[in-house]
């Protein structure tokens, strides 16, 4: 979609939908929202809906950073403790590595 052809009201509506969609455990939408609407929020000449778009973009960036931190923390903890967690870690694993820990 070319944002240059979309009306400012529709941009705000789309940005809001992506922001709210991130709360449905789809943090990728927050990341896309922050990248896609960054120019509209911070670089374009002022227009009426820009303040609201900027608010959604900033919140999307914060949500993306928090989700990335949570995922990286979980993966690190799981990889470091997988062997010591025994069968519980095996139930959480999609692929169980062969061999001894």
Automatic annotation (TrEMBL):
<dbReference type="Pfam" id="PF10251">
    <property type="entry name" value="PEN-2"/>
</dbReference>
<dbReference type="InterPro" id="IPR019379">
    <property type="entry name" value="Gamma_Secretase_Asp_P_PEN2"/>
</dbReference>
<keyword id="KW-0812">Transmembrane</keyword>
<feature type="transmembrane region" description="Helical">
    <location>
        <begin position="60"/>
        <end position="80"/>
    </location>
</feature>
<dbReference type="GO" id="GO:0007219">
    <property type="term" value="P:Notch signaling pathway"/>
</dbReference>
<feature type="transmembrane region" description="Helical">
    <location>
        <begin position="20"/>
        <end position="39"/>
    </location>
</feature>
<keyword id="KW-1133">Transmembrane helix</keyword>
<comment type="similarity">
    <text>Belongs to the PEN-2 family.</text>
</comment>
<keyword id="KW-0914">Notch signaling pathway</keyword>
<dbReference type="GO" id="GO:0070765">
    <property type="term" value="C:gamma-secretase complex"/>
</dbReference>
<keyword id="KW-0472">Membrane</keyword>
<protein>
    <recommendedName>
        <fullName>Gamma-secretase subunit PEN-2</fullName>
    </recommendedName>
</protein>
<dbReference type="GO" id="GO:0007220">
    <property type="term" value="P:Notch receptor processing"/>
</dbReference>
């Amino acid at each position: 979609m070319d944002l240059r052809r979309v009306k400012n009201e529709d941009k705000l509506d789309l940005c809001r939908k992506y922001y709210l969609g991130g709360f449905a455990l789809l943090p990728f939408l927050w990341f896309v929202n922050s990248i896609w609407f960054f120019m509209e929020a911070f670089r374009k000449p002022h227009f009426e809906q820009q303040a609201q778009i900027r608010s959604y973009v900033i919140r999307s960036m914060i949500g993306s950073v928090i989700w990335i931190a949570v995922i990286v923390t979980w993966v690190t903890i799981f990889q470091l403790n997988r062997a010591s967690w025994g069968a519980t870690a095996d139930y959480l694993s999609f692929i169980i590595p062969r061999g001894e820990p």
